Every structure is written in structure tokens, then in C-alpha cells.
Amino acid sequence: MTDKEKTSDSSHIEKVNEAPIAPDEDWDEVEEKALVKRIDWHVLPMLCLVFGLSLLDRTNISAAYIAGMAEALELTIGARYNIALLLFFVPYALLELPSNVVIRRIGARIWMSFLIIAWGACILGMGFVHHWVPLAVLRVLLGAFEAGLFPGAVFIISSWYRTYETARRVSIFYMASLFASGFSGIIAYGLSLIRVGDGIYREGWRWIFIIEGAITVAAGFVGLFTLGQFPEKARWLNPREKHIASVRISRERGNQEYEHITFKQSLKYLLDLKLGFYVMQYFICASSVYSLAFFMPIILREGMGFSYALSQVLTSPPYLLTVFLSLVGAWISDKFRIRWPILCAQSLTAVVGLLITLYAKPPGVRYFGTFLAVFGTQANIPGTLAYGQNQTAMSQKKGVVSAAMIAVGAAGGVTGSTIFRSQDAPLYLPGMWSTIAMQLLYAVGTFCMSMYLRRRNRLADEGKVDVLEGVPGFRYAP
């Protein structure tokens, strides 16, 4: 590389170690643990809150559907409801990678706050529509603005934590938000009881959108002051803490500094064949999660015969149990440094749950099956994201990997919103068996890929492979 090229490239490099510490100034385990705990409290809470709101906002349409929106907007005609669902995922898929390319340039706090305020306004607007077409248009805009949140949050988390610290943090982030959204049915039922004046304000389903949208907009403004940043922009760290935070991560990257990448470099990273497998994993997870989120209230009411109120309330307990079991699984995964056994076990649990829900006779037993199905599918969302991040050495590539996985996951959302068709009620056999087949594929594929990665590690240890992922000393975490 010429001196001119080096000078040009250096303009893209962002120094994360702004206050170098002399080589003899090291830190001990107690100091590092205290710093990690401080990072936890600065980075995770607001991310958990806003992601919980995003899950609530993208799935509250199912609660509004059975609260009267279906009749008011004539969504039962043809495939109008399915169209409104799947249109969300088109911009959601297309804009995730561009968002993760620009987030570090603009700054996480400003960029993500803008997205939160914008999608909150979309949700608020859904409370005032009178026809299904404006609803569909707002779903498109909702997908465009929500696109950057999830991959951006995973990118931020992976920039702060080591390989075997990541699964717990991603799981805490996802499950804390899932805990909040687990009450979505109860919250939606309460909001649907609101009646104000005459006309449209007496339609309870509108208040689901109006109140939840207003809360999201308010959270976006709060985020301007409280959302987490990347390490190099963390003003709440003193120079020594910033040094420790950056060096402990850079050592796993072969002491490489973060480099702002171009779209051309992003496309180069996308050609990694392993990334194709990671996105397939996440596609399966997302399609299963979205199908259950969109249609579980409908299955509970139409398939199991529960009342409207009980169907809304019964959607919450499976998600609350999922939070606890998923955090336990993530802790085991990090503690014992295992990934694939946990992921495969959770996937097979989902298969068992779906079979019980499909073929058991008593409604109570079928409802128990939803607990297993929700746990098995939801728990693998953060687990799969951590799996993809752990097999990636360079920080700039981590951003591309998370964005690509979640972008293809949007295609899973399209699948999840269409495989459960109204004409298949009340058993929804095609949708249920499609989900079962995908979960089995996930388990088999994850096992095979993990064995391949273990073999690559062994070859590197034996000196038969020079460098993994272009970073000396890096090892996969299968």
C-alpha cells in the first residue's frame, strides 16, 4: 500500500483509545468487573425499553384486529389483513444494512432517537385511519423507521462486550423488552375499553394505537439524552475506563481499530458463505416468532374457543415464562462456553410445543403447548444473533452481519404473516407444519455448522490453518 493510500485510509479510522495509558498501567479483574457493570447500566436499560416499545408497536395490530378494527376497516375481505402485515417487512428488510452503515457516523443517540419518534408518529396515525389503505401505508413507514433499531442495538452491544459476555447481554436486551411486550395483550385489552365522546373516539381499538404511539414518541425524545453510545463517544467514561473498555475488546479483534466502512466493503463482507447460514438461521427464527405473535390471539379465540377478553390475557403468560427460561439458557451458554447445544435444544422444544398445540384435544393442554412453542422460538432470537456475532472477528463486519441477519429476518416476517391463512382456520395446518419443518431444519443446520467451525478451530490450533477471519489468534465460538 502506498503512503498516499495509507493517508487516505487513515481518514476512515476512528481512534477509540483517545487517552493512551502506558503499557505498565494494567488493570485487575475487580476493576474490569466494576467497569462491565457500569457499562451494563449505561447501555442496556434504554435499549431494552425502546425495543420493547418496538415489539409492542409492530404487533399491536393483531390486538386491534380482534378489538373491532377488522370490522371497522373491512380487513376480513380477501387478504387485506395479511397485506397490511407483510408490507411492513419490505422497507424493514431493505433499510437495515444502510442504517448500520450510517449509525456510527451520525451517532447512535441522535439516529436512533429520530427513528423512535418517527415510528411512534406512524403508530399514533393508525388510530385515525378510516380505510385499510392508509393503514397499509403507515405499516410501510413503520417498517422503514423501525428497520435501524434492532441491528443498531445489537451492533452497539457487540461493540462493548467480549465474546462470552455477548449472549447474556443480547438475551437480557431482548428478553427485558419481551417481558414488557408480554403484557401487550393485557394492555391492549385495557386500552380497547376506552370510550371518549362520540364518533371514532368510541371505537376502543383506536386507543390501542393512539396511546401506545404517544408513549413511543415521548420515549424518543427521552432517548436524545439517555440512549447508549459506541465506546469512542461515551462521555460518561473517564480516560482510563475508556482505555480498558476499548483494549479489552480490541484484543479479541487482533488489536484492530474500528474503521468506517463503505457500501462497497459491506457488499464484500456479504459474500462470506458463513453469513448465508447465519441469515438462514435468523430467517427461521423470525418467521416462527412473527407467525406466533400475529396469530396466537386469533388461534386462542378461534381455534381454542376462548373469549375475546381471555384470548388477549392468555397471550401474556407464555412470554413471561420465556423471559426466565431464556435468561437461564443464555447464562449457561456463556458460563460453559457452549452455543449449539442450547440453540438446538430450544428449537426442538418449539417443535414439541407446536405438535401439542396442533394435536392435543383439551384446550388447556393445547395452551400449554403454546408455552413451549413461544419459548423455543423466542429464545433463539438473541441466541442466534449472539452466535453470528461470535463467529465474526472485526467490529466493522459485526455491524454488517447483524444488519444482514435481521434484514433477512424481515423476509421471515413476510413468511410468518402469510403462512397462517384465514381459510386454514381453526387448525392452520399449513402454517403449523411449515413452522415445525423450519425448526427441525434449524436444529440440524446449527449442529452441522458448529461441527465445521470446531474443526476449523482445531486446524488453526494445529497450525494447519494460518489465520481465521483474517485476525491472528481469533477462534470461533460454536
Automatic annotation (TrEMBL):
<dbReference type="GO" id="GO:0016020">
    <property type="term" value="C:membrane"/>
</dbReference>
<feature type="transmembrane region" description="Helical">
    <location>
        <begin position="204"/>
        <end position="227"/>
    </location>
</feature>
<feature type="transmembrane region" description="Helical">
    <location>
        <begin position="110"/>
        <end position="130"/>
    </location>
</feature>
<feature type="transmembrane region" description="Helical">
    <location>
        <begin position="306"/>
        <end position="328"/>
    </location>
</feature>
<dbReference type="InterPro" id="IPR036259">
    <property type="entry name" value="MFS_trans_sf"/>
</dbReference>
<dbReference type="InterPro" id="IPR020846">
    <property type="entry name" value="MFS_dom"/>
</dbReference>
<feature type="transmembrane region" description="Helical">
    <location>
        <begin position="340"/>
        <end position="360"/>
    </location>
</feature>
<feature type="transmembrane region" description="Helical">
    <location>
        <begin position="43"/>
        <end position="67"/>
    </location>
</feature>
<dbReference type="Pfam" id="PF07690">
    <property type="entry name" value="MFS_1"/>
</dbReference>
<feature type="transmembrane region" description="Helical">
    <location>
        <begin position="136"/>
        <end position="160"/>
    </location>
</feature>
<feature type="transmembrane region" description="Helical">
    <location>
        <begin position="432"/>
        <end position="453"/>
    </location>
</feature>
<dbReference type="InterPro" id="IPR011701">
    <property type="entry name" value="MFS"/>
</dbReference>
<feature type="transmembrane region" description="Helical">
    <location>
        <begin position="172"/>
        <end position="192"/>
    </location>
</feature>
<dbReference type="GO" id="GO:0022857">
    <property type="term" value="F:transmembrane transporter activity"/>
</dbReference>
<feature type="transmembrane region" description="Helical">
    <location>
        <begin position="275"/>
        <end position="300"/>
    </location>
</feature>
<keyword id="KW-0812">Transmembrane</keyword>
<feature type="domain" description="Major facilitator superfamily (MFS) profile">
    <location>
        <begin position="43"/>
        <end position="457"/>
    </location>
</feature>
<protein>
    <recommendedName>
        <fullName>Major facilitator superfamily (MFS) profile domain-containing protein</fullName>
    </recommendedName>
</protein>
<keyword id="KW-1133">Transmembrane helix</keyword>
<keyword id="KW-0472">Membrane</keyword>
<feature type="transmembrane region" description="Helical">
    <location>
        <begin position="366"/>
        <end position="388"/>
    </location>
</feature>
<keyword id="KW-0813">Transport</keyword>
<feature type="transmembrane region" description="Helical">
    <location>
        <begin position="79"/>
        <end position="98"/>
    </location>
</feature>
<comment type="similarity">
    <text>Belongs to the major facilitator superfamily.</text>
</comment>
<feature type="transmembrane region" description="Helical">
    <location>
        <begin position="400"/>
        <end position="420"/>
    </location>
</feature>
